[in-house]
Specification:
The protein is of the alpha+beta class and 285 residues long. The chain is built from 5 helices and 5 strands. It has a domain of 83 residues.
């Protein structure tokens, strides 16, 4: 039923209710104010009693009908109010559902983007791992090569590179040592090679304590020509030797006959003597 039909029915019902009320009032007035006939014999007593019962029945029926119409009208009015309230609630729920659907769609979109990003990160991680594994293998090979070079270095340069070379990965598995990144390990290898290269490009003079062929120890002056060869001479000039790098370490050979020449070369290097040609017992391998 439409709203217009409802209003029309309400108007008709109100008119009927008003007519019924007027009828009931008229019946009550008739019962209370109707004149009594002076002559009781003009109307039979049975007929008056029947009419009275009929009026009472009609009045009771109309009262019930009026009460029913009132209740029906009130129920329709209450229903209209309740319907409006329910409609508002339905509209609110529908808006909430629409909002939730939008949020769900946005969430699903975000989840899809996150899944794509996760997949990309996993792929990048796999590539990085492959590259890292290659770099680790490369730096491990470099460490081994430089470690094999260390015995060929003179003692002074070995001492200089020791803080870096001691951080090389141990060749034996299970040996406890500090975990370094690939970059740090490359840095240590390059640091050792830079120091060795610098030493190899220079002439160096050092003071060392060396065991002489007779078993005694003495402080000697050593001169190194890069990594190629080294010479030492004692302070008294009575002991001298020539050193060469080997895979097992530096090998020193006594050459007491070259003591004066070695001391002369050291004096020239330290500017204690005029520059001059000095013959030293070099060995070519």
């Amino acid at each position: 039923m439409s709203i217009q039909d409802t209003h029309t029915a309400s108007r008709i019902g109100a008119s009927a209710l008003l007519a019924a009320s007027l009828c009931i009032g008229a019946l009550r007035a008739q019962d209370q104010g109707a004149p009594k006939p002076a002559d009781a014999q003009q109307a039979p007593a049975v007929s008056q009693q029947g009419e009275s019962q009929s009026a009472e029945t009609t009045r009771a029926t109309l009262e019930r009908w009026v009460e029913a119409r009132k209740q029906s009208s009130k129920a329709r009015s209450d229903w209209r109010v309740e319907k409006e309230s329910l409609q508002e609630r339905v509209d609110i729920v529908r808006r909430q559902i629409a909002t939730l659907k939008e949020r769900i769609a946005e969430t699903e979109k975000s989840i899809g983007a996150a899944d794509q990003q996760k997949t990309q990160l996993q792929a990048d991680g796999a590539k990085i791992k492959v590259t890292t594994d290659r770099l680790e293998a490369g730096v491990a090979a470099l460490e081994e090569q430089v470690r094999a070079l260390l015995p060929r270095l003179p003692d002074p340069i070995q001492q200089k590179v020791a803080p870096l070379s001691q951080q090389f990965r141990a060749p034996v598995e299970g040996v406890a040592q500090k975990k370094l990144s690939v970059g740090a390990r490359f840095g240590n290898v390059l640091g050792v090679l830079n120091l060795v290269q610098k030493w190899n490009n220079e002439v160096s003079v050092t003071s060392e304590v060396r065991t002489l062929p007779d078993g005694t120890t003495a402080e000697v002056a050593c001169i190194y020509f890069g990594l190629g060869q080294g010479f030492y001479v004692s302070a008294k000039g009575d002991a001298a030797g020539v050193g060469l790098g080997t895979p097992e370490g530096w090998k020193w050979t006594p050459r007491n006959d070259a003591a004066k020449a070695i001391q002369a070369a050291i004096d020239v290097y330290q500017s204690k003597a005029m520059a001059s040609f000095v013959g030293l017992p070099f060995e070519i391998q």
